[in-house]
Amino acid sequence: MIRYVPSNIAKEVQAFVEKNCKETGVHVEETTGRVAIATTSEKDIEKIAKKFADKGLVF
Hints:
Number of strands: 3
Strand content: 15-25%
Distance between the termini: 9 Å
Strand order of the largest sheet: 1-3-2
């Protein structure tokens, strides 16, 4: 699954994923600065969803 992250929480999500989600990658587009997360781990998706659901990140 690849999911673009809303720009208002992109840096926060990026830091969380890099620190807490071993099976999930973060990609930052150099030209636009958009942040995307990529994973096949259901466990990582659940962690991210739980942490950021109240900020508008849904899967």
